[in-house]
TrEMBL record:
Statement: the UniProt record of this protein carries the keyword Zinc-finger: yes
Classification via SUPFAM superfamilies: ADP-ribosylation, Domain of poly(ADP-ribose) polymerase, WGR domain-like
Residue ranges of every copy of the WGR domain listed in the record: 82-179
Organism name: Naja naja (Indian cobra)
SMART domains: WGR (SM00773)
Name of the protein: Poly [ADP-ribose] polymerase
Example GO molecular function: nucleosome binding
Pfam families linked to this entry: PARP (PF00644), PARP_reg (PF02877), WGR (PF05406)
């Protein structure tokens, strides 16, 4: 299949892009390009700016007009290509509201936009509302040249739906029974200016050729795929239409964490009454989910709290990843090279015949836990990781440095490589953290590989090997969410397991455990004994990423 993007600028400029993100045709003659229409046959990330391109295997289903800082709603066909969202300085008259009420099976949105025509000072207010996942109903109110009237309609509707004043939205407070405001990120540079600059550069530039090793190109293309990130969170029921990944703010995610923390507290206290239900409503309102026509399910168990916390963690990593991947700087580099550079993390492929590759492969295969029988793993590629910022702050003064495993979902890696491994924020629920909020590692490869959440359909994942300065470990036989407080003159927590790698070697000063796994003799007299060791540090300075392994999961047959 051949993917082609056609970008049409006002005034007759156009450009076509093929599947390799290179310009295949270009014509430029606008005096003042004012808008852009992007069409695609497959999901595609345009590297010239931040665009939302809609997927269609046969024909174009949506066009998105990008003018200024917010796109006109594609459902407003009467104004597409003719108007733009009105802005006054930093005030952008565009809001997406959300409300979830589990008691009444409500999971709905309300969109309000004040539109200004391109060629005349005529204004209108566009509103669309309905159930998540549906186009819903709409209203377009014409105000002719009366901007004051249009603003009045916009602000009154905002007040009616939220019980908050438009001018005071910076201190927005969710009102009971009313819609919540989704905070969208409008800090990206003006789209018109971006595309004018891009167009001028495209005129004379040669075809961009990536300077990266082909193996690194494949890696960047995989972990920086916006489509992959969207598919990942959609599987977790997140609604990317109401809150596009590239627009979700850190504040919105933080608000989701606070709501989830409330839900967690009510469940722990066995108080599953109206207050608990309202906390569930608040979470779904702040972090939009798409359950179709089904009633959004209340969050009833701590396992469900953990699942939602994993969603928020993924959204946090993706927000960081997209910020770096989409970068605003336009130059002559290949898009993959720009994405790679933005990660600020050197990735050097290892030759499969090298001694280090052989050691990593042996470590991977020999520490596959005997209870993880659903799959085997094949090492496809290995990359040496060098992040200078981590090197500069690493705790070289601590002894007992080990090379340990960490696994994560595919969509999280752009964020991890750009920022390093981090401890969960204070607002995150404690549920799911066996030894409190920290950075978790394993000496059994498959224990970490389970956190890649690979499937038969999506059978490629990544495992990170980090050098972890454990120092003196506080050894525990059972879970303790307050483990960090027990670190008196110690530097890490080690949960003792029944099985552990029997041997070890040294690699560049770090201990590398080697299988096979053998019984340790550890028994918890008070109850459940961990199957395998857990290693936890609470300070990111005790971690430096060393190797990233691309792994294929070979799932066993069901029959």
């Amino acid at each position: 299949r051949h993917t082609v993007i056609s970008i049409h600028f006002g005034g007759g400029a156009s450009a076509s892009y093929n599947a390799k993100n290179t310009v295949s045709a270009f014509c430029f003659k606008p005096k003042d390009p004012k808008h852009l229409v992007a069409r695609c046959h497959l999901c595609f990330q345009c590297k010239l700016g931040v665009l939302l391109l809609f997927v269609s295997p046969i024909e174009v289903v949506k066009t998105l007009t990008v003018k200024g800082k917010a796109p006109v709603d594609p459902e407003c066909t009467a104004k597409l290509g003719k108007a733009h969202v009105y802005c006054e300085g930093d005030d952008i008259y565009n809001v997406m509201l959300n409300q979830t009420n589990l008691q009444f099976n409500n999971n709905k949105y309300y969109l309000i936009q004040l539109l200004e025509e391109d060629n005349a000072r005529n204004y209108s207010v566009w509103m669309r509302w309905g159930r998540v996942g549906k186009s819903g109903q709409h209203s377009l109110i014409s105000c002719s040249g009366d901007l004051t009237k249009a603003k009045d309609i916009f602000t009154k509707k905002f007040l009616e739906k939220t019980k908050n004043e438009w001018d005071k939205r910076a201190s927005f407070q969710k009102a009971a029974g009313k819609y919540d405001l989704l905070h969208l990120d409008y800090k990206a540079k003006n789209a018109v200016r971006l595309f004018e600059a891009a167009a001028k550069k495209i005129v004379s530039r040669p075809k961009a050729v990536s300077q990266l090793d082909l193996r690194v190109q494949a890696l960047i293309e995989l972990i920086c795929s916006i489509q992959m990130m969207e598919e990942m969170v959609i599987e977790m029921k997140y609604d990317t239409r109401k809150a596009p990944l590239g627009k979700l703010t850190a504040e919105q995610i933080q608000a989701g964490y606070w709501s989830l923390q409330k839900v967690e507290a009510y469940i722990k206290w066995s108080q599953t009454g109206s207050a608990w239900l309202e906390a569930c409503n608040e979470f779904y309102t702040r972090i939009p989910h798409d359950f179709g026509l089904k009633t959004p399910p209340p969050i009833k168990t701590l396992n469900e709290v953990q699942e939602k916390a994993q969603l928020l963690e993924a959204l946090s990593e993706i927000r960081i990843g997209i910020k770096h991947v989409q970068g605003e700087q336009l130059d002559l580099k290949h898009p993959l090279d720009q994405s790679y550079r933005s990660l600020d993390c050197e990735l050097q492929p290892l030759e499969k015949t090298s001694d280090v590759f052989q050691v990593l492969e042996r470590y991977l295969l020999s520490t596959h836990a005997p209870t993880h029988k659903d799959y085997t793993m094949t090492l496809v590629e290995a990359f040496r990781v060098n992040k200078k910022k981590s090197e500069a702050i690493f705790r070289f003064d601590l002894p007992n440095r080990m090379l340990l495993w960490h696994g994560s979902r595919l969509g999280n890696w752009a964020g991890i490589l750009s920022q390093g491994l981090r401890v969960a924020p204070p607002e995150a629920p404690v549920t799911g953290y066996m030894f409190g909020k920290g950075i978790y590692f394993a000496d059994m490869s498959s224990k970490s590989a389970n956190y890649c959440f690979a499937t038969r359909e999506k059978d490629v994942g990544f495992l990170l090997l980090s050098e972890v300065a454990l120092g003196e470990c506080n050894e525990l036989l059972e879970a303790n969410p307050e483990a960090k407080k027990l670190l008196i003159r110690k530097h890490s927590t080690k949960g003792l397991g029944k099985l552990a790698p029997a041997g070890c070697i040294s690699l560049h000063g770090a201990t590398v455990p080697m299988g096979p796994a053998k019984p340790t003799g550890v028994v918890n007299p008070n109850g459940y004994t961990l199957n395998y060791n857990e290693f936890v540090v609470y300070d990111p300075r005790q971690v430096r990423m060393k190797y990233l392994l691309k792994v294929r999961f070979n799932f066993t047959q069901l029959w």
